[in-house]
Design a protein that fits this description.
- By secondary structure, the protein is of the alpha+beta class.
- It has one domain.
- Helices cover about 30% and strands about 25% of the residues.
- The strands form four sheets. Strands 1, 3, 5, 6, 7, 11, 13, 14, 15 and 16 form a ten-stranded mixed β-sheet that branches. A two-stranded antiparallel ribbon has the order 2-12.
- Strand 14 and strand 15 form a beta hairpin.
- The protein is elongated, with a radius of gyration of 21 Å.
- The two termini are about 20 Å apart.
């Protein structure tokens, strides 16, 4: 049954606008985004670089800083959301993510099989769970006048640079893919293969405009044949995750996954 399949799968989620979701489905791929376009200002602005003596690199000539920034610009990322098993926070049940990245609940949450998706990447792509702390570390540049040395230092300290964020971002439960893309003018994509397993819509769409909701379901079915569409929302059993026909309860916030399936032909309002 769908409930058991969903529960047992290691999942990664991608929140996005509806129009962007259609583009993802059409291209069958996720785009590597540029770090300077991220919400976290520590990824928008220059990081605090220090040399091996602890001296801030902003005292170095501007051409050295430009060389560092040029190398950093080559790194791009795909941000996904994971389940937080320690806190019991499921990746689709994050209201901040629906609000910030999925058009205030009017967008889409794509659900990928983590194991399949990770097999789609090559060895050059770094990927892991982002760690959150009260401060963000600086990192050392050993040879600031050597472009190859700068590249080596960034790769050597990639975990500090790309997989640590300030604690105020921990609600994102981010799992990140990082790729070095030497051609700054070329867009880079990850073909997700057969990793897309579910598409989740928010009941806020249906509540606001039933006809628009039906049209969205039709469009999703057109571009993602055989991918089940689920419905997440607030209703009879607190927050619930149902199949699109509202005949199977996959999860609810009161009882997790362990809940009785409703009787046949019983429709649940969400």
């Amino acid at each position: 049954m769908m409930k058991e399949e969903f529960m047992n799968m290691k999942k990664l989620y991608h929140y996005t606008k509806f129009d962007t979701a259609i583009k993802i489905l059409e291209s069958h791929s996720l785009r590597f985004g540029r770090l300077h376009n991220m919400n976290d200002i520590h990824e928008n602005d220059k990081l605090s670089y220090v040399d091996t003596t602890g001296t801030l690199i902003n005292s170095f000539p501007s051409d050295v800083l430009d060389a560092i920034d040029c190398e950093m610009a080559k790194y791009r990322q795909i941000s996904l959301t994971a389940d937080d098993d320690k806190k019991g926070k499921l990746g689709f049940d994050l209201h901040q993510m629906w609000g910030l990245y999925a058009e205030k609940g009017k967008g889409v949450c794509l659900v990928f099989d983590k194991e399949i998706l990770c097999k789609q990447i090559d060895d050059a792509v770094l990927h892991k769970t982002v760690l959150y702390d009260t401060s963000v570390e600086s990192f050392n540049i050993a040879t600031p006048n050597d472009s190859q040395g700068i590249q080596h230092d960034i790769q050597r300290q990639a975990e500090i640079l790309f997989f640590q964020k300030r604690k105020e971002w921990e609600h994102e439960q981010e799992y990140r893919y990082i790729k070095r893309c030497p051609n700054l003018k070329k867009e880079e994509y990850l073909d997700y293969g057969k990793a897309l397993k579910y598409i989740i819509l928010n009941s806020a769409i249906e509540d606001a405009d039933v006809n628009k909701f039906k049209k969205m379901v039709e469009d999703l079915n057109k571009y993602a044949e055989n991918v089940p569409i689920l419905l997440y929302g607030n209703g009879l059993l607190d927050y619930s995750l149902l199949d699109i026909n509202k005949t199977e309860i996959i999860w609810n916030s009161s009882n997790g996954y362990d809940i009785l399936i409703p009787e046949e032909n019983c429709e649940i309002d969400v």
